[in-house]
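Sequence design from tokenized structure. All designs in this work follow the same two-part layout: the structure record, then the generated sequence. An example of the structure record is given first.
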């Protein structure tokens, strides 16, 4: 079953990614307490399954927090999902596009950026549609209802 595996908050730009067990989504803003607020990149999400493929191809063990995304989800394919709505727990997030890996990925491990550039390996960026709490273990699913 697709689920939320990890949550990270970033207190300041370029700062560390702090793991938390639960967080609050704020519609039109992002994650409460996260440095990035508003805009079209409110919450970033990566796939646990795709991350395992990436690190296996490099032959290294890198924690998914290396990607610097806010959420790690399992058992759901994020590639080519622009415009779709993902439900995390009781909240909806609209996917605005692919998060392209930056030079910080090669700072973490040389060659990581190039491998992540394939098949949406950097994950997706979203806007938050609903206020509410989310927590590790929450169900994740596509929501095909029209966005109003």
């Amino acid at each position: 079953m697709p689920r939320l595996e990890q949550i990270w908050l970033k207190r300041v730009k370029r700062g560390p990614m702090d793991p938390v067990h639960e967080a609050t989504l704020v519609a039109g803003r992002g994650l409460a307490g996260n440095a990035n607020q508003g805009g079209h990149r409110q919450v970033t999400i990566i796939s646990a399954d795709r991350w395992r493929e990436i690190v296996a191809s490099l032959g290294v063990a890198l924690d998914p927090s290396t990607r610097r995304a806010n959420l790690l989800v399992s058992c759901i394919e994020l590639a080519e999902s622009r415009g779709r709505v993902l439900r995390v727990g009781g909240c909806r997030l609209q996917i605005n596009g692919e998060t392209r890996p930056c030079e910080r990925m090669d700072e973490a491990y040389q060659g990581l950026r190039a491998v992540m550039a394939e098949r949406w390996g950097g994950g997706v960026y979203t806007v938050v549609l609903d206020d509410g709490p989310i927590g590790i273990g929450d169900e994740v699913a596509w929501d095909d209802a029209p966005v109003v």
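Residues 3-143 form a domain with the M1 Pyruvate Kinase; Domain 3 fold (CATH 2.40.33.20). We note this feature because it recurs in several other targets discussed in the main text.
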